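Internal ticket - ligand job 180, coenzyme A:
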Amino acid sequence: MSGSAVRAALPVSASRHESSALMMPEDANLLGNVFGGAVMALMDKTAAVCAMRHARQQCVTVSVDRIEFREPIHVGELVVLKASVNFVGRSSMEVGVRVEAEDLRTGLRRHTNSCYLTFVAIDAAGRPAEVPAIIAESHEERRRYEAAQARRARRLDERAAEAQHTRAHAAAHAATEPAT
Ligand SMILES: CC(C)(COP(=O)(O)OP(=O)(O)OC[C@H]1O[C@@H](n2cnc3c(N)ncnc32)[C@H](O)[C@@H]1OP(=O)(O)O)[C@@H](O)C(=O)NCCC(=O)NCCS
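stdout (structure tokens):
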């Protein structure tokens, strides 16, 4: 986008997405509860829909924050996933996903875990592409926006530290390699 072009902006509500899936025996781990990987795949898919709805472009998952499963989900429960865009950079979007398990006999829902995933919009050449800005309207959306901004800064610091560590390790390894 050229410097003079006005960047589009969309409200959080325009891309919010909810999905659900009934947990079947094939989703179980060896203890008979739902396999964590099955829930992670549902989280990634639900968040990806939300990111692509916001960007209206192809998006890829670039990072997933720490996931903590607070309690097991049982076969026969309905997993309900609620996703919304918390923060947008230039090409990246942080999407928050809240996971609940519903007992279909009682209607009771338990919050089992939440996670933040970062997606990047990709252009036809496979490069990061600019996405619309996000408009946080409600008090809750503004709170999430600010928290997401702080998490983004931490992630980028961690990424830079890891790159530095990799470079230092490669340099140390090269120094101990016998000359050929
Ligand atoms: C997504 C991808 C093209 C980004 O490439 P890159 O060289 O890191 O690009 P950049 O450094 O320009 O970063 C692009 C954006 O991603 C963000 N980003 C990059 N790494 C990140 C990370 N680890 N966590 C959070 N955001 C990250 C940058 O901050 C930047 O955001 P901004 O445009 O909003 O400022 C590249 O990492 C990729 O192809 N990854 C594989 C994605 C994939 O295949 N996912 C599915 C896994 S099976």
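Auto-summary: The two ends are 49 Å apart (CA to CA). The chain has one domain: 9-175.
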